[in-house]
Amino acid sequence: MQTIRNIVEIVVKECSKDMPDVDTWYVDKTVTKILALEAIKPYKNRSFGSNKKKKPIKIKPYRRMTVDELKIVQIACDYNHYEFNSVISNSRKRGVVEVRMILMCFFYYYRAYTYSELGKMFGRDHSTIIHNTGTHEDLLDSDSMYAIKYFNTISRIKEEMPHLFIAKDTLENQSAEYAKIKAERKAKRNKHAVS
Description:
Order of helices and strands: HHHHHHHHH
CATH superfamily of the domain at 67-167: DnaA protein, C-terminal DNA-binding domain
Shape: elongated
Number of helices: 9
CATH architecture of the domain at 67-167: Orthogonal Bundle
């Protein structure tokens, strides 16, 4: 009875017949490599395809949302046909990400939330919120379907909760005051740096 080693030796010798300078050292080395590869067991616990178990969705907001914030998120979820938990989760599906981006931009532009407040509310870092607002601007320019989804969602929120919208002139006054304070701080730092 032949062992696996003998079979592999025969195959390697047959394959190396055409090479004139093959010696026993080369055959032994090749056989050893093949047997080492054969010893590696395939990973059998991995499942492929549709029978793969789904991971539970983790929800990790850093702070509790207020009643109005929850209503806004629920309106956006209902309008776009997504579950509340999937929008708040870490899901990276395109539709879920778009709804989350719409909500973040709504709170940023219409409710004057800061990046860090939004990060705490959605359980993300402020830099993620900055990236989302930039991506939102790009998508409004390039993707007409996203723009329609965004403006329809905002109009639905406006229909159901008109009292939450801050007047545009109020926002402009707030940003003008903020710019003024920022300039004063910068002048103060420069003054201390010089002296």
